Amino acid sequence: MADTAPNTAAAGQAPADVAHPRTIRSFVRRTGRVTTGQAKAFEELGPKFVLPYTGQPLDPQTAFGRPGKLILEIGFGMGEATAHIARVRPDDNFLCCEVHEPGVGALLKRIGEQDIHNIRILQHDAVEVIDFMLPEGMLDGVHIFFPDPWHKKKHNKRRLIQSPLVAKLASRLKQGGYIHCATDWEPYAEQMLEVLGAEAQLANTAEGYAPKPDYRPLTKFENRGLKLGHGVWDLVFVKR
């Protein structure tokens, strides 16, 4: 979930006078190549669909130009699932955080090709977005799909789903709001279940792992894994 840091203020540079804690990050830096089509999407659609990082509380009505439930997505990769969910839930508004420039370009391209209007992108570290732009009780839902599993045990501490972040997310949810995580790495699924289950503000909607909600599509990567016998685990917790 992760990648190249943005290059311009409009793409998400933090104001110089805002201090940012670094105890949690929602990404690691990796390189990536922006295609011609993605670059064109940035130019044509970026001004409308990519929000600047301001370090100030977000006004969803202004950002989306309409009311609606607000769903935060952290790390959307190339945007395949994000675009699908936005289409099948047209009344909801999706605020999507991703620093990987090719991924942002790919989602913008999908937005144009599929005539999607209920997505806004913040090309910035999601933890700082949560800390400085999302007041408590603002969100109706959170999606975190297939975050980096950090397979090696010595790297497990770098995983996104840790108690401090889950507590932040839970505090930003409205009562009855939800957190939906999915992973194809069973040890990470076990950690997610433990961490989410330990958060007093949240309640599991299932006895353990949840059935895959209808709105989350099977991606090409996921379908390949299932054919090879790999498992996928969904977890859905709600704010008490």
Automatic annotation (TrEMBL):
GO CC terms: tRNA methyltransferase complex
Q: Where does substrate bind?
A: 152, 184, 219-222
The kind of enzyme this is, by top-level EC class, is transferase
Name any one GO molecular function: tRNA (guanine(46)-N7)-methyltransferase activity
Q: Which domain of life is it from?
A: Bacteria
Could you confirm whether the keyword Magnesium appears in this record? no
Q: What is this protein called?
A: tRNA (guanine-N(7)-)-methyltransferase
- Organism whose genome encodes this protein: Comamonas kerstersii
